[in-house]
Automatic annotation (TrEMBL):
This is Beta-glucosidase. It comes from Jeotgalibacillus soli. Belongs to the glycosyl hydrolase 1 family. One of its GO terms (biological process) is cellulose catabolic process. It holds the Pfam family Glyco_hydro_1. The active site is at E163 (proton donor), E374 (nucleophile). It comes from the Bacteria. The keyword Membrane does not apply. Coiled coil: none annotated. It is an enzyme of class 3 (hydrolase). Its EC number is 3.2.1.21. Keywords: Carbohydrate metabolism, Cellulose degradation, Glycosidase, Hydrolase, Polysaccharide degradation. Substrate binds at Q17, H118, N162, Y297, W420.
Amino acid sequence: MKFPHDFLFGAASASYQVEGAWNEDGKGKTNWDVFSKIPGKTHEGTNGDVAIDHYHRYKEDIKLMAEMGLESYRFSISWARILPAGDGEVNEKGLEFYNNVINECLKYGIVPFATLYHWDLPLVLEEDGGWTNKRTAEAFVKYAEICFRAFGDRVKHWITFNETVMFCGLGYLKGAHPPGIQNDEKKYFQATHYVFYAHAKAVEAYKELKSYGEIGITHVFLPAYSVDDKQENVVAARHANEYETFWYYDPILKGEYPSYVVEQLKQKGWTPSWTEEELGTLKRNAGKNDFIGLNYYQPIRVEKYHEAVSSMEHSRETSTLAPGNPSFDGFYRTVKMEDKTYTKWGWEISPQGFLDGLHMLKERYGDLKMYVTENGLGDEDPIIDGEVVDVPRIKYIEEHLKVIKRAIKEGIHLKGYYAWSVIDLLSWLNGYKKQYGFIYVDHQDHLNRKKKLSFHWYKHIIETRGEEL
Ligand SMILES: C[C@@]1(C(=O)O)OC[C@H]2O[C@@H](O)[C@H](O)[C@@H](O)[C@H]2O1
């Protein structure tokens, strides 16, 4: 059986991780332009000043995507190229760059899938409180409307935010991402709320424009499973799903927060300062979402945790989602299990965990259109006789595509798959230690591009629409 004719085989990138040209053509500074240059924040001081120079080489890169037969390219727009000061004056050169990227995609019949926010926030807004300041939410809606008007005649698939739990969690709890604050639960929950509010306002604005495209949000999908049947561990898994999934998915898809978490925030004094207007906006617009984007890499296995965690000291290492760390509130701990398979960075490889999680989502949110907006293997790819022989990545993606095909057969409304990443790119904290792409970038030879084994494999899968999987 082939994948459905309207299922999109794609791959993804993010502006800060590929573009470079950090201060060219009128682009404003972002939080990451500054944060990545604070000594010790990133592996070997890597940053996005050049990245893989996609800003100047996007034509070559999109031509390679076309040679792979890629049906859709998910990229992100850097807010600070469009509005250098976050709000205020529009930078025409910024609009020009993304118009060129979109037109280059369409030249090859590649469907552009645009993410408005993939963590690079204009510095002016970060310095004014970032996502804990409602001004940022309001500025985002203005930025979104500018993009809808400039690109919406050709871009018909929009994602507002990528992985809110990551930029809020690492920004305000672990401190590994800007603004680098640790253990501030009040700011963490406040930031998530203003992001959800900004999303709902952007959806409302998009629908009013009647561009007849679709809009949604991309969340991490990290289904939590108990390590065994012990009641306290089953309760720990429920707690993890409430805080890591339902807190993020409910306000978008139901228009209200999960009562389990709301009650506990009240008791702990972490309730965001939200207004009736904001909560009403969430409720009014929940039904207008066209899809949810899932970034799935792994599930988590959890057990009840019994030690105090007051003001844990965090590091880059405790921020990598590898198992063994307690949750921010100390309620549970993730566990590495003997009978599971893991990547070199300790992420479990579990296509079955994805399938089980998809059914959990369908049970809670109904027959909702979904895209896998990220899935892939971060690895140190072996180079043999000058060829990048990334067989582990082929196996990883093959197993996940098999499960996606099965999920569709079981009635899950999955409409596309975007491998992370289309091309090797800068990791926020890990530089170029692990690669994710179908295309190799040679940092020892002028960032020259080279097709990997997986490039040819994915090309075949797309051509045959995965019939053999
Ligand atoms: C933490 C990490 C990684 O480097 O492994 O997870 C996988 C992937 O997720 C994406 O949303 C990030 O933009 C990208 O940089 C990657 O980030």
